[in-house]
Specification:
It comes from Nicotiana tabacum. By secondary structure, the protein is of the alpha+beta class. It contains seven helices and 14 strands. 20% of the residues lie in helices and 28% in strands.
Length: 231
């Protein structure tokens, strides 16, 4: 203990018990293995990029990175039809509801009818018996016809007959029309029903959106505004 005390008393303040000395061989670097063998000459001769290519984790990635530029993947062009294109471009027209039935003005002989019902769903032209009697002297006679009519409620009625080649005037045109005559209640709202045979004879073109009816005769045509039938 006395020797330790003497050494401490002889030390210069601010210094360690033993000063460090500069290593004369500071450039020498030695690696010791666990076996105790010292490796003095350690040199990695392989370039870093060569070492990386040997690693499986990087091999696939490096193949996708060429020295120049990475090629862009080719895109496939899918051609859409007109229907799909209209949907994507929002060109589909706005849908409409049922516009209902329509009527047109016409005249038979000396009688004018403001609301003759045009029905593209009817396969016949229909005239009530009371209208025929009103114009009996101008329309000729009723001919019998072996036809029965089935109504919407599945009931069946027998018509009075048929009158043929009745001249119907619509605007400036006159068309020959055959009517089946039926005994029915008086309905001033629907005095006549003109079905597909009439519309075909008139070469009619219906524009339900604009609510217009085009009738044609030869090279002439007339466009009239249809009247909505109030039910």
């Amino acid at each position: 203990m006395g020797q330790i005390a003497n050494l401490l008393s002889e030390m210069t303040p601010g210094t360690l018990p033993s000063d460090t000395k500069k290593n004369p061989k500071e450039t020498i670097k030695v690696i010791f293995l666990r076996s105790g063998k010292a490796l003095t000459d350690l040199e990695v001769k392989a370039r870093p990029e060569v070492v990386l290519t040997q690693m499986h984790a990087y091999a696939k990635f490096l193949k996708k990175i060429p020295s120049s530029k990475r090629k862009l993947e080719e895109t496939t062009v899918v051609k859409l039809n007109t229907h799909c294109s209209a949907i994507l471009q929002n060109k589909i027209p706005q849908k409409c509801g049922d516009p209902g039935s329509f009527t047109i003005p016409c005249s038979l002989g000396s009688e004018k009818f403001d609301k003759a019902l045009c029905d593209p769903g009817a396969s016949i032209n229909l005239m009530p018996l009371y209208v025929f009697r009103k114009l009996e002297g101008e329309l000729g006679v009723i001919k019998s016809i072996p036809v029965s009519l089935q109504l919407a409620d599945q009931t069946t009625i027998l018509p009075e007959g048929i009158i043929e080649d009745i001249l119907v005037r619509v605007d400036k045109f006159v068309f020959p029309v055959d009517f089946i005559v039926v005994d029915m209640e008086v309905n001033k709202e629907v005095p006549l029903i003109e079905g597909r045979p009439f519309l075909c004879t008139c070469r009619a073109i219906l524009d339900m959106y604009e609510w217009q009816l085009m009738l044609r005769a030869g090279n002439e045509k007339v466009v009239s505004q249809m009247k909505r039938m109030m039910i």
